[in-house]
Amino acid sequence: MNDIASRVLKGDPQSVARLITLAENNSPEAIGAMKDIHLHTGDAHVIGITGVMGSGKSTLICELTREYRKQGLEVGIIAIDPTSPFSGGALLGDRIRMMEFATDNGVFIRSMGTRGMLGGLTTAVYDVVEILDAAGMDIVMVETVGVGQAEVDVIKIADTTIVVLVPGLGDSIQMIKAGVMEIADIYVVNKADRSGVEQTLAEVESLVDIACTNRDRKTPVLTTISKESKGVVELIDEIDKHKKYLKKSKMFEVQRRKRYEAELVEIIRKRLMNFIFDESKFKGKIESLIDQISNKELDPYTAADEILGKILR
Amino acid sequence: MKRKIRVLIAKPGLDGHDRGAKIVARALRDAGMEVVYTGLHQTAEMIVKTAVQEDVDVIGLSLLSGAHMTLFMDVTRLLKGKDMEDVLVVGGGVIPEEDIPALKKAGIAGVFGPGTRIEDIVEFIRKNVKR
Ligand code: B12
Ligand SMILES: Nc1nc2c(ncn2[C@@H]2O[C@H](COP(=O)(O)OP(=O)(O)O)[C@@H](O)[C@H]2O)c(=O)[nH]1
Ligand SMILES: [Mg+2]
Q1: Contact between chains at B54 and A93 (C-beta distance less than 8 A)
Q2: Which residues does chain B have within 8 Å of residue A11's beta carbon, measured at their own beta carbons?
């Protein structure tokens, strides 16, 4: 077995951290280790947490982590923030809310930039979930970016998806537009200390009623005040119930299959894109094709055929 | 693809002056780096464990209270036991000239006081990052 892989399986934090970096940088060194660890994954329950920026996702993750630690469970956290499309840099600030676990050996937190991926995740997130799972984490939480719409990719990776809302601001209308109504396994109306909770709660519940008429499970809607640790135990309870529901209804296998499908597609996409665009072999060819398209000597489809023809022989 | 430089910006101790740390964090982001910011009141142990998990290439410490001699050196001492010696450690804030040689000897590779130009910090990091 690969050296770093065996250390990851023992839960060595430095090796976990290093393998995440290698995976994130598409390093060939990561591939061998990722192959070795897969056999040892699948036990961690993956919780996706999405919702707009400032809704309290990071604070809620901190609260959930504290409860899970009381139960003796080990927790991995992947906190994703946006990469600037201009500089390529990112300010990763979710940890500020989670510092009470900085010296807890049962909690591993990794902050990541989106690095160009849309949909609220980052391309290496599948790898990182596998790595944390292999390292023995019982729970893996994924916090999406929170830039608003279209952050629906999280359902592909999460066993339980939590959508965090806040009172007011016509959130429910935004949700319908974004298609977020379809993705939640649990709704949380956080900041329930604020005015307008009743109304938001009523709106969300009526939307859930419409969306769930043909389903065997009604999506629960909870309120929390994560700043005051209120409603957190109830939320953990709902997560447990959802996990049991998945297992009982065989939805668990369906859900996991979706995740592996997404992961496989992502690996192929990444390696194919690297092969075509990052290897010097095609660089000159692509440049000259773009010139030809610009000069109307060639159309883009024929140009694409020329590149693809070289691969798909 | 070029590897992104990952930086941890941390404020050790009880010092509440965070303007400089935030400005530096934002500037490094704008220079294309991934910057983890952890907020105020960090112990050396918290800083080092965070640096391990985040696998950063650089640790940037910011302190204006005057406690830099002990707090900065606590961090470099803990790093030694952790197979993290290749991490570049830099510091900034209100630090008297006469303290700088001792800090450098203790492993703080660069020290930047009030009025430092951001470009100089970026350039120093790019030049000296070890991995
Ligand atoms: C603004 C300020 C405050 C603000 C802070 C607001 C905030 N949220 O940051 C307020 C009013 C709250 C404040 C309070 C206090 N302050 Co005051 N404050 C200042 C002041 C005037 C400017 C600091 C500042 O923001 N500068 C602007 C930023 C951009 O500069 P900077 O932090 O130095 O950062 C630059 C470099 O140092 C470097 N850098 C900084 N960090 C890092 C990190 C890395 C990795 C790198 C590479 C570089 C780097 O790059 C930056 C860009 O050039 C300084 C005086 C001074 N000239 O520094 C006093 C000063 C720091 N304060 C001082 C004191 C004593 C206090 C108080 C104790 C006063 C009191 N008795 O109430 C309190 C304590 C507050 C606390 N909780 O710790 C003293 C500290 C004395 C000492 N070191 O021995 C100073 C030096 C004033 C003085 N001459 O006496 N303060
Ligand atoms: N009033 C109130 N504020 C909260 C609550 N939960 C979190 N916050 C605050 O909302 C802000 C954003 O929280 P954060 O967890 O960073 O949100 P994120 O961007 O979704 O991760 C912080 O200032 C929190 O202290 C809550 O239940 N009530
Ligand atoms: Mg957050």
Answers
A1: no
A2: none
Q: Where do runs of H (alpha helix) occur along A179-250?
A: 197-211, 232-248
Going by alpha carbons, the residue nearest to atom 7 of ligand 2 is: A56
pTM tops 0.90, yes or no: yes
Supply the mean pLDDT for chain B: 94
- Residue minimizing CA distance to atom 81 of ligand 1: B65
User: pLDDT class for A311, splitting at 50, 70, 90?
Assistant: confident
Question: Which residue of chain A comes nearest to B5, CA vs CA?
Answer: A89
Q: Which residues pair with A75 in a beta bridge?
A: A107, A139
Q: Give the nearest ligand 1 atom to B63 CA.
A: 41
Q: Are residues A32 and A61 in the same domain?
A: no
Domain membership of residue B1 (yes or no) is no
- Taking 80 as the threshold, does the pLDDT of residue A222 lie above it? yes
* Higher pLDDT pick, A171 / A1: A1
In the structure, what pLDDT confidence band is assigned to residue A168 with cuts at 50, 70 and 90?
confident
Contact indicator for A50, A154 with CB cutoff of 8 Å: yes
Instruction: Say which CATH number the domain at B26 has.
Output: 3.40.50.280
Q: pLDDT by residue (tens digit) across A33-49?
A: 999 999 999 999 999 99
Ligand 1 pocket, residue B81 CB under 6 Å: no
CA distance B84 to A180: 43
Residues A152 and A198 reside in one and the same domain: yes
In a domain, B16, yes or no: yes
Which three-class secondary structure state does DSSP give residue A76? strand
Selecting from A18, A92, A99 the residue whose C-beta is nearest the C-beta of B34 gives A92
Q: Is the pLDDT score of B1 beyond 50?
A: no
Q: Look at chain A and count its residues.
A: 313
**The residue type at B74:** D
Sign of the C-alpha dihedral computed for residues A267, A273, A276 and A277 taken in this order: negative
Instruction: Return the structure tokens found at A237.
Output: 């309870």
The ipTM value here is: 0.95
Of A18, A93, A109, the CB nearest to B37: A93
Q: Which residues span the domain enclosing A287?
A: 266-311
Within a 10 A sphere around the Cβ of A118, how many other Cβ atoms?
A: 11
Range(s) of the domain holding residue B122: 6-128
| CA of residue B89 to ligand 1 center, whole Å | 20
Q: Give a three-class secondary structure readout of A83-142.
A: ECCCCCCEEECHHHHHHHHCCCCCEEEEEEECCCCCCCCCCCHHHHHHHHHHCCCCEEEE
Is the Cβ–Cβ distance between A64 and A232 less than 8 Å? yes
